[in-house]
Amino acid sequence: MTKYSATYAQDRAEIEDLMARYLFAMDYNDFDTYAETFTEDGTLEYARGAVTGRENIRASAKAFKEAVGSLYQDVDGNPAILRHVLCQSVIRVEGDKAWHTGFWFETANDGPRLPGSDRLTPTLGTFGIYEDELVRVDGEWKFKYRNIKNEFLAGRDSGKVNPVLAMDAHS
């Protein structure tokens, strides 16, 4: 059975807050805040590859969002509005280090227009697993490494084994 430290609840709340700020920053094109969720030398690994360092992460996130706007469009040809959701999360904290595995999905307004309405049908788009290593820097949790697994992309899926077991193997 997992043992939790006396400060686990606070650490977990701070890490969950970091993850929420990360998603809001991405969804609302706030690339400065997005990059600030990483350490100075942090690494983001995702469908386009791996980038290291805040400035590179900022630039890569901005370019990715611009590309996504041309791929996901509503029925009128406008870039779709995408919103990400983090569901179940497992977080292990050991002092100033932490590991996280969580399930995410995104929803968008790129479905068909409802009959007799201006309202667009929301769709469930992509989904996957976050694999994270976090560190506390000057009292704040930051991503040291984030790997975004995409269950719909060959070679980027999470595999057939419970991903929490891989997180638990880290030390």
UniProtKB/TrEMBL annotation:
Residues covered by the SnoaL-like domain: 9-146
Organism: Aurantiacibacter flavus
Transmembrane segment boundaries: none
Protein's UniProt name: Nuclear transport factor 2 family protein
InterPro entries found in the cross-reference section: NTF2-like_dom_sf, SnoaL-like
Gene3D superfamilies: 3.10.450.50
